[in-house]
Recover the amino acids of this structure.
């Protein structure tokens, strides 16, 4: 792998530990909606998790009975996935022996290292916007079986639902030049719905209860933070910590979130 793809993958490589510890999973309703909209039962399905990262979606699909092929170009991200998911023939920690094994493949979602027609689902969990919009979907269609589905999903802070969260996002937008999120006017969900034949779209609200330090690890795992020097990132985090501790002295946040889910063929 070389060129721009390698550079993109490196963005998350720098924050892989924070990503693994800080990022939230997806609420159960997301998985129910995936099946309802796509018609694909997760139990027994073969799913290709493209841009699998540290394996948040990989493990959730596996826990629901899917055989998962996890694909990502970032070695540090995949290392977390392998360690936690029992990939490449290892048994996962935590006694999940009955779950199907996970295959972890270092590769490019724009040129999947898979044969045609192997998958019931091609999943992009917070990842499709990092890929080439046309090449990725062409590849997804190539590896899908007839009746299979392509799923994109993204977890967002729902800033409009809480004044403190809106203020938090606004301060990030002011301080971090590469910030991209709900506080910038041109922000929108990744346009996957215009890249495939849409079967259905859903917005799924949920609430994340999280400690301040955990929430700040999540902040560090965003690509716009990874673009800062370590010193600058520390300063931004320290300011957010002070503000959040002052506003929530008990140290726990109730964060309004929402998942955008798009299913297509
Ligand atoms: C925001 S993370 C998403 C990780 C995980 N799916 C999740 O739900 O948290 C985006 C991932 O996309 C990966 N990625 C970037 N370019 C890619 C490409 N061309 N093909 C496959 N994955 C890619 C990155 O390495 C990173 O792990």
């Amino acid at each position: 792998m070389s060129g721009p793809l390698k550079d993109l993958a490196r963005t998350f490589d720098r924050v892989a530990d924070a990503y693994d510890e800080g990022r939230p999973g997806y609420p159960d309703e997301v998985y129910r909606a995936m099946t309802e909209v796509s018609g694909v039962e997760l139990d027994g399905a073969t799913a290709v998790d493209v841009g699998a990262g540290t394996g948040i979606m990989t493990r959730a699909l596996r826990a629901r009975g899917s055989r998962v092929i996890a694909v990502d170009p970032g070695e540090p991200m995949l290392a977390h996935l392998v360690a936690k998911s029992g990939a490449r023939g290892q048994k996962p920690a935590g006694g999940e022996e009955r779950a199907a094994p996970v295959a972890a493949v270092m590769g490019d979602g724009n040129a999947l290292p898979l044969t045609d027609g192997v998958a019931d689902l091609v999943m992009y969990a917070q990842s499709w916007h990092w890929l080439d919009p046309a090449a990725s979907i062409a590849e997804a269609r190539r590896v899908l079986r007839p009746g299979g589905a392509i799923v994109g999903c993204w977890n967002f802070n729902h800033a409009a639902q809480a004044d403190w969260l809106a203020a938090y996002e606004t301060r990030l937008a002011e301080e971090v030049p590469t910030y991209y999120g709900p506080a910038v006017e041109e922000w929108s969900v990744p346009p996957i719905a215009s890249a495939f034949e849409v079967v259905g779209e859903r917005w799924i609200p949920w609430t994340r209860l999280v400690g301040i330090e955990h929430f700040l690890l999540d902040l560090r795992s965003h690509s716009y933070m990874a673009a800062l020097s370590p010193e600058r990132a520390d300063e931004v985090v320290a300011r957010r910590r002070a503000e959040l501790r002052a506003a929530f002295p008990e140290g726990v946040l109730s964060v309004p979130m929402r998942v955008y889910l798009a299913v297509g063929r």
Summary: The CA atoms of residues 178 and 224 lie 5 Å apart. The pocket of S-adenosylmethionine is lined by residues 5, 8-9, 12, 23, 50-53, 56-57, 71-74, 77, 108-110, 125-127, 130-131 (CB under 6 Å).
